[in-house]
Amino acid sequence: MSIESTLLPVDELVAAVDGFLAASPAVRAWDVETAFDWAAADAGRLSEGQRSAVQFVTFIEDHLPGYFDVYQRCFPVDDSVDLPAFIHNRELYHFTVRWALEEDTHARALNHYQVAAGIADRATLRHELAVEGRKPFDLPYEHPVQFFAYALVQEKATQMYYHQLRDVVDEPVLAAVLTRLARDEARHFSFMADVVTRYLRVQGDAAVEPIRDVIAGFRMPLSDTLRGYWRWALRIADVADYDHTAAYEHLLKVIDRAVDARTEKVDELADLIGQFRTLA
Ligand SMILES: [Fe+2]
Ligand SMILES: [Fe+2]
User: Fold this and answer.
1) What is the CATH code of the structural domain delimited by 3-279?
2) Single pTM value for the model
3) How much distance in Å is there from the Cα of 187 to the middle of ligand 2?
């Protein structure tokens, strides 16, 4: 089955995109240049683990070109798709470019923080990020809801991570950056939750099964390519008392709200999430 044949009806997608853009007015936007008192940034107030956490999330955010490219490949905005799919993809693009701008701003903010706080010098950091940034990123999905379910977990996971890291750092500039980032991720999560909800309402169990596959094979971005990922990830999880499987619970909540009653498929998914939670 092709991705095109299982796309959300365009009116449903448009409602979600409109909702996201309405929740993202220009007055609430921020920029790297003016939002923070960079001169006050001081990595000397961070623990070794906290500094390491900042470096780790900079790699994750900086991989944006790879993430953005996934959407371009899977929801093409050209003549490789038929007209209805193009219409859907063109509407989605209104979300994707705004989202990409915000994620790119996250990458720049963290990059800027590292330099201003004395964690890294600009040229070295640029080089290190490039070594990881040029490695490929792909999501092996066949049903469109999977891209949104994956991003839902990912956005919630980063939102929780930034929030929890902010709570433990005693450095006001980093705390301010993390507050901005967490708020953006929360808004991104809401969009993904809205889209996943619409898929479930329109397609029912036919959308639950592919979501289950996302959870069964879940990999955090860069876990396959970033040097020393697993050891590093465990260490930074410890720094902020964080567990990414907690984000699965949020996916389950979205599903429970979207369906009138639990079906066998939803129960299976709930069981799977329960297993991951106990393991973690
Ligand atoms: Fe981000
Ligand atoms: Fe995000």
Assistant:
1) 1.10.620.20
2) 0.95
3) 8
